[in-house]
Specification:
With 198 residues, the chain is mainly beta. It is built from 1 helix and 11 strands, in the order αβββββββββββ. The strands form 2 sheets. Strands 3, 4, 5, 6, 7, 8, 9, 10 and 11 form a 9-stranded antiparallel sheet that branches. Strands 1-2 form a two-stranded antiparallel sheet. A hairpin with a 6-residue loop joins strand 3 and strand 4.
Length: 198
């Protein structure tokens, strides 16, 4: 009789890989690559208490926050949940074409073929590229009318000015700070749903 070895679920493997560095090298040398971009089905996405945007926190940088100042320009996660995102490869319901920005660490929508306005790069917009060889996946975000199952946190929205995702549940219609004009994010589109680590 032979025993069967159970393989861990794909999501468990991805979680174990969170925040780890890729090792590259030859027989002569070993080099550590730059941190990987956000991975699907991974914890580590956070709400910024200053700009209300969603950003990835496990790359060893707080990215660029439009509400920052010359002493501290990064996002702050005080009071945030620990959010998990999935990619189109994970399947399920939701809107595709959401991407991670390698400059500001935020989540932005590329479905309108615009790079938006990035707090780290200004009018040149967000970038799906991080330090070589990293590139963002296409994320799949649920909304109230197109979700996998009940539950999750609603009132996440898309800002047409910066193309970023932000939370509008604390001060509806007057949330956060948009990097394009320094005013509040624009409330447009549907109400997206994010899920947190239990």
């Amino acid at each position: 009789m032979t025993s069967r070895i159970e393989q861990p679920p794909r999501r468990a493997v991805l979680r174990m890989m969170a925040g780890t560095s890729l090792l590259l090298g030859t027989s002569a040398a070993l080099a550590v690559a730059a941190p990987a971009p956000a991975q699907a089905a991974q914890a580590g996405w956070r709400w910024c208490e200053r700009c209300s945007g969603l950003w990835y926190s496990l790359n060893g940088t707080r990215g660029g926050c439009p509400a920052g100042d010359i002493l501290d320009g990064g996002h702050h996660s005080t009071g945030s949940g620990n959010y998990i995102l999935k990619t189109i490869e994970d399947g399920g319901r939701g809107q595709s074409n959401w991407r991670w920005c390698g400059a500001c660490q935020g989540l932005w929508y590329w479905g309108n073929s615009t790079f938006g306005h990035c707090p780290s790069q200004g009018s040149s917009g967000h970038t799906p590229f991080g330090p070589y060889p990293t590139i963002s996946s296409y994320y799949l975000i649920e909304d109230v009318g197109n979700r996998d199952s009940p539950g999750g946190q609603e009132q996440w929205r898309w800002c047409f000015k910066c193309a970023g995702m932000f939370f509008d549940g604390n001060t509806p219609g007057a949330s956060g700070r948009c990097p394009k004009d320094g005013a509040h994010h624009a409330v447009t589109g549907g109400s997206y749903v994010l899920r947190q680590v239990p």
